[in-house]
Specification:
Structural class: alpha/beta
Distance between the termini: 28 Å
Largest sheet: 8 strands, mixed
Oligomer: single chain
Shape: globular
Bound molecules: N,N,N-trimethyl-histidine
Radius of gyration: 20 Å
Number of strands: 13
């Protein structure tokens, strides 16, 4: 049995403990760095995941509904091209609540009657939710959740005869990674699949800065709450004493790096204590703590990244305004 498979069942408690250590380690290293930073995966505790779902519905956050419209229009073509005459098994990285995925699953079901769906996520909670919802909507689907971290190298179950894999990495999730990290992730993915397998990659495109900035600093303050929830999480999990009213949400466009950046800005000089880490951290007035990068790509750029990782781009779909792109490529 492969180690990554053990984690889906008996390894769960160990995996959970390990994730808590990862929180402590990431927070210690981020808060003792200069400039201070916290990694964006920390956003997604229960409240953070709910706030992210809310973000996907706010008027300014165009990403989710734009990608959904592309998938709604082209899911049939995407599935047909990816399958190339074979039966598709659909694997999804960072499955989350798997909402847009149902459009692709429905297209695969129409084509082949049933489908094996392997959502991969570090959070087993997210996978459980996806599984029950999908089983209700698609009675003949076979959901095989995989709890693992796909950012290092990773392992996928071998296919059966006549099967071909389609790996979904949608939602511009790749945008959280630095260029070197996303190259590594795509390399790891290329090694995990077989020649002829397909990947469907969804990415947000560069557009007017005002549009980008309002998407990450909405009027209703949902993104601000999402960002500040990080501090609430550290208060709960590490016994910290962050005063969430003493920090402000900030979102800026970094044109040179082609990314949105989010920060938590200290409104006053203050000292925060983190007993679980035996750590006290000073913040100066207006000191910025970095919490997220969200890369935005130029047309053609993601195809280049796929080529560099050993994939051959097959087709790219975009919306009328050219705000978001979904690219299908095949492992060479
Ligand atoms: C889930 C990483 C795609 O970068 O747009 C939304 C997360 N952060 N609003 C993004 C996010 C602030 C989102 N991704």
């Amino acid at each position: 049995m492969h180690p990554s498979e053990r984690m889906t069942t008996a390894g769960m408690p160990a995996a959970t403990a390990q994730i808590t250590d990862q929180v402590a380690e990431a927070v210690r290293s981020g808060l003792t760095s200069f400039p201070k930073r916290l990694p964006p995966w920390l956003f997604y505790d229960e409240t953070g995941s709910r706030l992210f779902d809310e973000i996907t519905e706010i008027p300014e956050y165009y990403l989710t509904r734009t990608e959904r419209s592309i998938l709604a229009e082209h899911a049939g073509a995407m599935i047909a091209r990816a399958a190339a005459g074979d039966r598709l098994r659909i694997t999804e990285l960072g499955a989350g609540s798997a909402d847009k995925t149902r459009l692709l699953l429905a297209a695969a079901m129409r084509r082949q009657g049933t489908v094996i769906y392997e959502p991969v996520d570090v959070s087993s909670g997210a996978l459980d939710v996806a599984q029950t919802r999908l089983a209700r909507e698609f009675p003949t689907i076979r959901v095989v959740p995989r709890v693992m971290d796909y950012t290092g190298g990773f392992y996928l179950e071998p296919l059966e005869r006549g099967e071909r894999r389609l790996v979904l990495y949608i939602g511009s999730s790749i945008g959280n990674f630095e260029p070197e990290e996303s190259a590594q992730l795509l390399d790891g993915l290329r090694q995990a699949v077989e020649p002829g397998d397909a990947v469907l990659l969804g990415v947000d495109l560069v557009k007017r800065p005002e549009l980008l900035i309002s998407a990450y600093d909405d009027v209703a303050g949902v993104t601000a709450a999402f960002n500040l929830n990080l501090l609430t999480r550290l208060n709960r999990e590490l016994g910290a004493d962050f005063d969430t009213t003493a920090f402000a949400h900030r979102a800026t466009w970094n044109a040179a790096a082609s990314r949105m950046e989010m920060y938590l800005v200290s409104r006053v000089p203050q000292t925060v204590h983190l007993p679980a880490l035996d750590l006290a951290v000073d913040f100066g007035r207006s000191e910025c703590m970095h919490t997220e990068n969200s890369y935005k790509y130029r047309p053609g750029q993601v195809e280049g990244m796929l080529v560099d990782a050993g994939f051959k781009p097959n087709a790219t779909w975009t919306d009328r305004r050219g705000w978001f792109a979904v690219c299908l490529a095949r492992a060479a």
